Amino acid sequence: MLVGVGRFGRHHLRVLKMLADQGQIILEGAVVKTPEKQARIANEFQVPVFTEIPIALLQKVDGVVVATPMDTHFSIVNTCLEYANVLVEKPLAMNTADAKLLESKARQRNRVLMVAHTYRFHPMVEKLQSLLGTEDGLPYRIEGQFVNPANTDSNENPSLDHLHFFDVIDFLFKKTPLSVHCNASGRAHTVSLRYPENMDAILKLGWNGDAKKRTLEFFYRDKSIRCDFIQNTIDVICGGENRRIEVNSTVEPLEKELRLYIQLLQGNAAPEHYPDAVVGSRILDVALKAQPLQTEHKPRVAIIGGGIFGANCAIKLAAFCDVTMFERNNDILGEASFVNQYRHHWGYHYPRSAETVRDIQRAMESFESLYQSAIVRNFPTYYGVAKDGSKVSAEDYVRFCREHNLPFTLEYPDPRYLDPNQVSVCLKTMEPIYDYTRLKSLVHSYLTQEKNIHIELGSNVIGGQLLADGRKELLVQSNGNSSARTFDFIINATYANHNTFPDWFGFPKKEVRIDLVEALIVRLPIPHISLAVMDGPFTNLVPTGENGVFTLVHIKESILKRFVPSDGLVPPGLQVSSNAKKIVEKSKEWFPILEQAELLESRYVFRCVNANREHDDARPSDITRHGFGCFSILGGKILNSVRVAQELAEEIRGYTSTPSAATPVALVNGFAQPSADLNVRRSLMDPPDRPQIVEDPQAIR
Ligand SMILES: Cc1cc2nc3c(=O)[nH]c(=O)nc-3n(C[C@H](O)[C@H](O)[C@H](O)COP(=O)(O)OP(=O)(O)OC[C@H]3O[C@@H](n4cnc5c(N)ncnc54)[C@H](O)[C@@H]3O)c2cc1C
């Protein structure tokens, strides 16, 4: 007997009818909610249809299939188990206590209680099982999307209604998550799950956009395996090669599932992968934990690093978050945001990376809207292309600048500044610089205007971990004391220490190149002028906000150490000695004026860039989304800091301001639980009229 002939019950009825026609079962009837539907279904499927569960019939049948709205599962299954075995659509119940009750009732009555985790019977999952079985170890990350178009929203809870991939991971890896975190944005949940052995899964579930998406991607160190459950394809991508597997099956998953149920009713032994009530309870438990945290307070955000990127994130997030910015030094903007050449880049410096120029151009307006008064303009900036050894030719350089609308005139400065015999072309531009002191004072005033920003100086973050409910704990050392602090979101803006944070949390690290750079501060009796020799191991002289004071960085001689560390971390205890003399000597070959330079200071800084980008020297600013509400920023250029902060703030605002789901969820012991309202049992049976979901041909949602 089938109870419920709604959007998915219809598929059950179709397959049960087919099995009945084949003589595999006797289909005693179906139960619906209204007399109208009773007549319609009886006419369409030619089976007896009832509007109440007929108890006399229930006592007679071997098994019942329950495909009613999820909030009726408990009461209907509870009734049916008194008399018969049950296959129930997922989820088993609406809370773990009810699921456990059903589980123990089935055990006491010696009944089959199977939960329709149909993806276990999907040919793609069967193929994946054999494919992944040959891998050494676990993937370090799984990404998936189980999304239906927004206009098909059935008003259910995204993580409860679309819990299939929790089950697929459970089935494939036999693992239960240790930590579950969920952010809601509109009607979609982004669920992050941490499994044993640091296997993370980041799943987008719910209703969003126009397209239906069913994808799962498994990332291993040496390969990725990408599955599309709509196309029924699996791509194995390894070493630049893509091997495609087309997965076909003539038997639909629902039929396989129902055939297994029939075998169990006939007393056959249950196979290992059989989704019984224990599995159903386990998957329900994950889905219930995968609910957005409902907190009384504003979302608590920790920003690690008080450089220009961290500070701007704090400024942008303060409107709707409670922000704590940890800076290990006793002042903000003391490391790379201080030791650099203060160029307000327009793009001339990156003639081999259109990506970097685009990144700069789309960031310009946002930065200038906040920091206009820190920008020093109206002095000439010359870019010469070296005659010998340049990675870009004079023609290509000029073409690149024209193509990217970078204004210039072809003009040389006084030969005392730049030796014209050594360059094949020279462009005069009006690229500005920042005045560091004014920039810092503006940042400081924005930060202190916001009462939601707590700046903790002299606070070194030394560790961290994910908590079971998806919140994050940071270990902070300050004034010789350590304390553990808990946050909803974390932004890692530590630049050279970029990989320390993922190291604590077991997230994949970024492959970075780290340079220890010596930047010289020199005094020269000349007006503001900026000089650069492109594009290779040459040199740069750039004015600062202070008249007659310049930064001098030689692309080769200023690099005291360079490494791509295998662990991604800054090597401890480096000992270096100054190379200032050689930096000046080698730079003089280009800029004769340096004869008059007075060396004021050597400043040392770690530069951190994406590894393996020597070919184009690209410096975009990127955001890594680790999942679990954790982000890392690798800042390429100072002017990107506001755009990156805005992008992150918009993303976090999306997660925090929208109602998460139609299903209300409350917290119990730190975990989200459906509210009491959800446990109001509806009598029976069919789903209310909802927007029709376009069903998969293979009857699997
Ligand atoms: C030699 C050189 C020249 C450059 N020239 C230019 C230029 O002309 N124009 C331009 O736009 N860009 C330039 N850059 C790039 C620019 O400096 C960086 O992109 C930018 O400063 C990065 O800012 P940030 O906030 O990410 O890093 P930072 O300013 O380094 O800030 C990171 C902060 O994190 C703190 N921190 C780290 N670990 C912890 C922890 N565990 N706990 C608490 N605090 C922590 C650090 O103390 C630091 O203050 C240059 C870079 C270098 C190295």
UniProtKB/TrEMBL annotation:
Per UniProt, residues of the Gfo/Idh/MocA-like oxidoreductase N-terminal domain are 2-117
InterPro entries with a match to the protein in the record: FAD-dep_OxRdtase, FAD/NAD-bd_sf, Gfo/Idh/MocA-like_OxRdtase_N, Gfo/Idh/MocA_Oxidoreductases, NAD(P)-bd_dom_sf
Quote the biased-composition stretches of kind Basic and acidic residues, using this chain's numbering.
681-693
Q: Which Pfam families match?
A: DAO, GFO_IDH_MocA
Q: Which residues form the FAD dependent oxidoreductase domain?
A: 300-548
**Gene Ontology molecular function terms on file:** nucleotide binding
Chain intervals for the UniProt region annotation (Disordered) = 681-701
Q: What is this protein called?
A: Gfo/Idh/MocA-like oxidoreductase N-terminal domain-containing protein
Organism for this UniProt entry: Candidatus Uhrbacteria bacterium RIFCSPHIGHO2_02_FULL_57_19
